[in-house]
Amino acid sequence: MRKSKLPLKKLYTFVSHFLKRVSPNRQAKKKGRPQKYEDTLIITLWLFQILNNYSYRETLEKAKNEGFEVPSLCDYHYRVKQLDDELLKGILKECANLLLEDKQILCYIADATGLGFGDKYNLNWKRGTQIRTVQSHVRLEVIMAVDEDKRKIITAVETGGPYESEIEMLRKALKKLQPQKGLPFIADKGYDAVDIIESLLDRGFEPAIRIKETMRMSIRHPLRKLPNKKI
Questions:
Q1: What is the pTM of this model?
Q2: Which residue pairs, CB below 8 angstroms and at least 24 apart, start in 137-141?
Q3: Helix, strand or coil for residue 98?
Q4: End-to-end distance of the chain based on CA atoms, in angstroms?
Q5: Residue 130 CA to chain centroid, in angstroms?
Q6: What are the pLDDT digits (tens) for 33-82?
Q7: Alpha carbon 90 to chain centroid distance?
Q8: Phi, psi (5° rounding) for residue 195?
Q9: What pLDDT digit, counting tens, does each position of 163-212 carry?
Q10: With CB atoms 3.0 to 4.6 Å apart as the test, which of 34, 74, 90, 189 could cross-link to 22 if both were Cys?
């Protein structure tokens, strides 16, 4: 089934299931007006919107046509902006656990990318006589598990600003990764850092990171020599 063909009602069932596993005792905030629409509905609508590349208005119209009681456009937009990042990451982790259940994991892979969106902003320095204008974007760090069927399942994710350090984001993502004894952890030269290698070893992984080395700069730290021997 393609992601764009995932029915809204089935998506609602999935989100409800994972949300109960992530935060079974989640309670509404005591201060302020109580929420009329539960987090399950808001997250379902938002995921449905992303999967189908709909606008906010189109998403509400589709959901209403399928019998869902939906918030106003203003309320829905506000609730999406207020979604808890850690809650969403927890749902992602539970989804990965389900997909990897009874599957043999071959290795883990770390990678970073940038996600752009419509806004633009000016950099603080000039290029010639003009200020350089760039597209707004965020940094995304992803840790994927490769299973026996060669599927890549995202198990942990971390976000940052436009020029966030890949190493710093990986440090945060690794804290949420369960120890896996003897499994290779693959990454490129952007993650060449002693503390990253130490963290992987502490969690039982075998670091397979490309180490930066030139004719004039050899590898000196003993931990940085380990990944090169395994590649």
A1: 0.71
A2: 137/162, 138/114, 138/162, 139/112, 139/113, 139/114, 139/163, 139/164, 139/166, 139/169, 140/112, 140/113, 140/114, 140/115, 141/110, 141/111, 141/112, 141/166, 141/169, 141/170, 141/172, 141/173
A3: helix
A4: 36
A5: 35
A6: 677 899 999 999 999 998 888 999 999 999 999 999 999 999 999 999 99
A7: 10
A8: -70, -30
A9: 778 888 898 899 888 888 889 999 888 888 888 888 998 999 998 887 76
A10: 90
Contact at 8 Å (CB) between 180 and 157?
A: no
Distance CA 51, CA 2 (A): 10
One-letter amino acid for residue 219 of the chain:
I
Tell me the pLDDT band of 1, cut-offs 50, 70 and 90: very low
Only one residue has tokens 């030139």, namely 214
Asked if 204 contacts 180 with a C-beta cutoff of 8 angstroms, the reply is yes
**81 vs 28, 37, 42, 72, 98, CA distance in Å?**
17, 14, 10, 14, 27
- The H or E element spanning position 41 is helix 39-52
Helix (H) or strand (E) holding 72: none
Residues in the chain: 231
Q: For 207, what's the count of Cα atoms within 13 Å in the CB-facing half-sphere?
A: 26
**Residues 76, 77, 82: CA angle, nearest 5 degrees:** 95
Using an 8 Å Cβ cutoff, are 176 and 167 in contact?
no
Do residues 151 and 166 make contact, with C-beta atoms less than 8 angstroms apart?
no
Q: How far apart are CA 76 and CA 37, in angstroms?
A: 9
